[in-house]
User: Which sequence fits this backbone?
């Protein structure tokens, strides 16, 4: 396979690097600071359904990633947690749940009398997510755990400081 340079050691750069390494590429990550000094380390994230084409593929990926996150949530060291959530909408007529959203665990409509003021509808669910200081570690774990069956482990991967800034 080819040699690939990934610029950036935040959650996106690390995800790209791990995924490329799992596919057999020789990956080098270069960044102006190490992963635990990036913005990603203080960022949180929530899993949610995907609504883009090709719908069959994105739905399969979303279902697969949900399973990976649910498994990771059983290990407190992963940083992934199952979080009760309340989603609200001010969009009139948004009563029908899209098919992609029906895979959200424990998804249920909120009684109209309990919808917060200023909104027309609401739903409760259990979402998977991770918070500050775990994002970069979790990214590498998730990318590794969600590799396609039969994909060989990385041949090599390295990280180095030193991406210059321009402008």
Assistant:
């Amino acid at each position: 396979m080819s040699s690939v340079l990934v610029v950036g050691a935040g959650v996106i750069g690390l995800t790209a690097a791990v995924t490329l390494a799992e596919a057999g590429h020789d990956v080098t990550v270069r960044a102006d600071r190490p992963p635990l000094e990036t913005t990603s380390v203080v960022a949180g994230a929530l899993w949610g359904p995907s609504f883009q084409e090709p719908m069959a593929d994105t739905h399969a990926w979303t279902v697969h990633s949900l399973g990976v996150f649910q498994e990771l949530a059983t290990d407190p060291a992963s940083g992934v947690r199952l979080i009760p959530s309340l989603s609200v909408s001010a969009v009139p007529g948004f009563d029908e749940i899209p098919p992609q959203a029906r895979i959200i665990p424990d998804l249920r409509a909120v009684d109209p009398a309990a919808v917060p003021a200023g909104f027309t509808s609401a739903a409760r669910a259990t979402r998977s997510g991770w918070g500050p200081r775990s994002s970069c570690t979790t990214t590498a774990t998730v990318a590794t755990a969600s590799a396609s069956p039969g994909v060989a482990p990385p041949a090599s991967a390295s990280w180095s400081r030193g991406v210059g800034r321009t402008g």
